[in-house]
Amino acid sequence: MRARRICAAAVFLAALALAGAPSRAQAPAWPQRAVKFIIPFGPGAGADIGARLFADRLSRRWGQTVVVENRPGADGIVAITAFVNANDDHTLLFAATGSFTVHPFQIEKLPYEPRDLNPIARVSNTVLVVAVPQALGVGTLAELVALARAQPGKLNTALVPGITELVFTGFLKGQGLDMAKIPYRDIVQAGTDVAEGRVQVLMSSLALVQPHLQSGKVKLLAVTSHEPVATLPGIPTVGAAGYPALELEGLVGLFGPRDMPADLRERIAADARAVAAEDPEIKARLAATGQVVNPGTAAEFAKAVDDQRAQVATIAQQIGMKPR
Length: 324
Known about the structure:
- By secondary structure, the protein is an alpha/beta fold.
- The chain has two domains: about 35-125 and about 250-320, Bordetella uptake gene, domain 1 (D-Maltodextrin-Binding Protein, domain 2, 3-Layer(aba) Sandwich), CATH 3.40.190; about 130-225, 3-Layer(aba) Sandwich (D-Maltodextrin-Binding Protein, domain 2), CATH 3.40.190.
- About 45% of the residues lie in helices and about 20% in strands.
- The chain has helices spanning about 1-25, 45-60, 75-85, 105, 140-150, 165-175, 190-195, 205-215, 260-280, 280-285, 300-320, and strands spanning about 35-40, 65-70, 90-95, 120-125, 130-135, 155-160, 180, 200-205, 220-225, 250-255, 290-295.
- The strands form two sheets. Strands 2-1-3-10-4-11 form a six-stranded mixed β-sheet, with helices on both faces. A five-stranded mixed β-sheet has the order 7-6-8-5-9, sandwiched between helices.
- α2 (about 45-60) packs across α9 and α6 crosses α11.
- The chain is globular.
- The termini are far apart.
């Protein structure tokens, strides 16, 4: 009798387990329709090329169309506003974190909140460099610092508005250096001016100076990433060169709406990692635009974004900038 009772209880528990299994195992299907990537850059930009490569590969994996929509303008605000207003888990933002981590210190009334940008997956790192004219005769960051210290106010620097300008300004203040800042409407012109010696220092994406490296008119002093860049052998990191204050990661990745579930974010991140691992063309194509494929988990990307926001806040305080 006791054996029959135990057996009946076991059958009952097994039935409960089977009844509950489908509801736990079946996550909502995603995507259920076309997916859109909104990017804050124009066609042909490095991030645009990356977005289109991943859109194509993910479309094949998901069995749904992935559309890339270019929304440049207002230092990323146009694209971010369009993304936030969509409020749709099938509309994602494909952006460089430098497009928005400085916004609280630049823009008085932001049309979005930081938590509206929910990190999904780091996709790549834009290679950022410190470059000088070859004719300047400077071979290292230490030599550049020494020259600037010996000639206060005589060297010109062109900076991409935004996070690179903030980081370089913090570096100058920390070192007690005085350089004249040259404003540009079109930062592409700055690459030419460095090559011709009209500007002595440029901190920017590698892509901006790549043509002038090939002509031999520009020299790279360092990369700003924490790790060396394999495609630039012999070029030290700013940390290894002795100036960690210049360290800056050019993070590029996908963001979802604030209420996107964690399991969906991780699922999309896993798919991004998978297509990057399976397709060597992505690595080669992005390397040609000055990027390094560097996919990661949603948690890793969220931490990297938080770290960059903290870095920006620290530098802003150092140079006397306050949240607007």
